[in-house]
Amino acid sequence: MSMIKTIIIDDERLARNELKKLLMDFPEIEVIAEAANANEGIEKIDSLNPDLIFLDIQMPGKTGFDMLSELTKAPDVIFTTAYDEYALKAFEVNALDYLLKPVEPKRLADAIQKLHLDEDKETFGEHDISTNKSILGEHDQVFVKDGERCWFVKLSDIRLFESVGNYAKVYFGPNKPLILKSLNALEERLDEKVFFRANRKHIANLRLIEKIEPYFNGGLLLELKGGEKIEVSRRQTVKFKEMMSL
Questions:
Q1: Is the same domain home to 17 and 122?
Q2: Is the pTM of this model over 0.70?
Q3: Which of 12, 19, 180, 212 maximizes the CB count within 10 A of its CB?
């Protein structure tokens, strides 16, 4: 069993120590760092690339949700909190699990069990990309926060990014929340074999294209699985055809 690199993020030192003590019963969980607030958490996650974080929701300054929305790539998350009114919100985020403080050993064991089930579902070979930290693989998940609603989304489920000023609209399932990232910044991080820059305003997931039709001036029209129609500019059409012809 491979070690699960873990970071504990909580503003209370006692809570961190207590959790560390409980985690000693799980030899596969390796606590590689701790953080006392969201900014420190972001820094440690970016530099250490953990598999899992235990995250307190209510922290002074930024909440755990705020912190997640600033990450480029989200690890697995188990929330720890004293407030159960957040439970529903956390599950809309569909985090791995949700532990009320003080954390009970039995609940912790259940949460870690879930983590293993999740790991077993992952397909072989999908972590090859993680050696290159800057490019996000399609199995990586991103955290999207829009007002009070939050989601973890696998990149493979996102069919389209659309530029809206300084924001990007993210299309997955029936949802279209906005994230504060420019299309150019996203393009740098996305795998171009999967996500194609169709024009100035759109990056489309090549695996979720339903139909391709010729369009004005030698361009193309792509229809995505969600029904969106995206024009491929003439210049990008040349590139698109090169990519598509094996």
A1: yes
A2: no
A3: 19
